[in-house]
């Protein structure tokens, strides 16, 4: 995508000339618009965020070997994207301290996997990128390592959330990200740009302007991010609000290929919102094995939609993820046990339950 970014920027600029941002949501997407995926586009890319988003909120320190084991097990399932850690201030998110040794492990002992994996790490500022680069400098990816490393910045769609999560306003955060994005790009690293609370904020409520989200996304794309992940941090999103947001993104000239959706399942709407997004043409979704997680700065928000539930849902539509669902179900059960939580994946529990039943019957 990055090769054609200048072209897209031009296209975005043109569409902005034709379509003032303030009126973005009043425009219906065209039926056969270039946004619609070509027929047969039935592949969905899943970004597994369990090792980062899933674990970051756990109060009890999780041993490094458990985090590494989680990543290694996930790598064997056919996943192509795993968010592995976070270069944030340990005082803010203690559980992510030690992400440097996770990155080092990935570089020096690449987990076995059926294909190359893109491993991503959050970095909110130049300090975060510098810490990641210190490790990357010492252990460059050699030719035998087919994996890639990605850096993610994370903005917010509300001022209150930006203050709580990043200790600065949105404009300042974007200014800081510029340096992170340029620094990462200078080292040929792919960059993802999250926008949190796009469908509801724990402090400002549901009234988040989709046009404002599209404006922040456009800023991030123009700074050079390769992909935007729209974060429904609170899980307050509904089918209609998801649709309005994606329409606003389209009206701002943002391509579906540049958008991922990141639904937390606090209100049980994540798969409904996924269905709406699929219908709109989105083909990248974030999810967390076992439904692990929550954001430390979004009180009450629960985990991402479980990867097992997401894969089962996509399979049921006849679409493809390339991911081994029974293997995922086992990982969800295992990691939930390791961190003393109950498994939050309905599909995971159903698969394991029916396996246990069959094993019991065969013994009779
Ligand atoms: P601050 O306190 O304003 O930072 O926090 P500061 O620059 O004043 O520095 C304070 C201390 O932190 C200093 O150390 C810095 O060196 C250190 P001291 O001198 O006091 O010993 N520091 C760092 N250390 C390590 N790595 C760094 C770093 N930066 C500063 N990168 C800051 C500003 C951005 C650092 C802080 O607010 C922060 O780390 N925030 C991260 C919060 C977070 O990780 N939230 C969860 C991830 S976002 C999320 O989950 C949402 C998402 O899933 C999508 C969705 O669901 O919506 C992505
Ligand atoms: Mg999240």
UniProtKB/TrEMBL annotation:
Pathway stated in the Swiss-Prot or TrEMBL entry: Metabolic intermediate metabolism; (S)-3-hydroxy-3-methylglutaryl-CoA degradation; acetoacetate from (S)-3-hydroxy-3-methylglutaryl-CoA: step 1/1
Reaction(s) catalysed by this chain's protein: (3S)-3-hydroxy-3-methylglutaryl-CoA = acetoacetate + acetyl-CoA
GO molecular function, one term: metal ion binding
PROSITE patterns: PYR_CT
Domain Pyruvate carboxyltransferase, chain residue ranges per copy: 44-329
Keyword Lyase applies: yes
Top-rank lineage group of the source organism: Eukaryota
Entry annotated with the keyword Glycosyltransferase: no
Region Disordered, annotated ranges: 15-43
Entry EC no(s): 4.1.3.4
Family: Belongs to the HMG-CoA lyase family.
Protein name, entry field: hydroxymethylglutaryl-CoA lyase
Gene source species: Calycina marina
């Amino acid at each position: 995508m990055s090769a054609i970014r200048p072209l897209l920027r031009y296209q975005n600029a043109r569409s902005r000339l034709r379509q003032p941002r303030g009126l973005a949501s009043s425009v219906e997407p065209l039926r056969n618009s270039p946004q619609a995926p070509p027929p047969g586009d039935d592949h969905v890319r899943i970004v597994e965020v369990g090792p980062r988003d899933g674990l970051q909120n756990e109060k009890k320190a999780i041993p490094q070997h458990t985090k590494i084991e989680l990543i290694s097990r996930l790598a064997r399932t056919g996943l192509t994207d795993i968010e592995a850690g976070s270069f944030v201030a340990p005082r803010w998110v203690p559980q992510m301290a030690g992400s440097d040794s996770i990155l080092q492990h990935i570089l020096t002992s690449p987990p076995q996997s059926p294909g190359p994996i893109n491993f991503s790490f959050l970095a909110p500022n130049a300090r975060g990128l510098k810490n990641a680069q210190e490790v990357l400098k010492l252990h460059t990816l050699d030719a035998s390592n087919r994996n890639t490393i990605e850096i993610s910045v994370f903005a917010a769609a509300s001022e209150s959330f930006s203050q709580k999560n990043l200790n600065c306003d949105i404009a300042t955060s974007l200014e800081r990200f510029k340096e992170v994005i340029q620094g990462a790009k200078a080292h040929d690293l792919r960059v993802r740009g999250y926008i949190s609370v796009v469908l509801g904020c724990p402090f400002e409520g549901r009234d988040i302007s989709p046009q404002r989200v599209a404006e922040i996304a456009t800023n991030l794309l123009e700074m050079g991010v390769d992909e935007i992940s729209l974060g429904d941090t609170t899980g307050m999103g509904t089918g209609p609000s998801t649709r309005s947001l994606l329409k606003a993104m389209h009206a701002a000239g943002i391509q579906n290929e540049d958008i991922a959706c990141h639904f937390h399942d606090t209100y049980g709407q994540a798969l409904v919102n996924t269905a709406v997004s699929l219908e709109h043409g989105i083909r990248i979704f974030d999810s967390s094995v076992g439904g692990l997680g929550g954001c430390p700065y979004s009180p009450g928000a629960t985990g991402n939609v479980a990867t097992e539930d997401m894969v089962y849902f996509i399979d049921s539509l006849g679409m493809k993820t390339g991911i081994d669902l029974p293997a995922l179900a086992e990982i969800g059960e295992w990691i939930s046990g390791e961190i003393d939580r109950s498994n939050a994946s309905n599909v995971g529990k159903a698969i394991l339950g029916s396996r246990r039943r069959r094993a019991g019957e065969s013994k009779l």
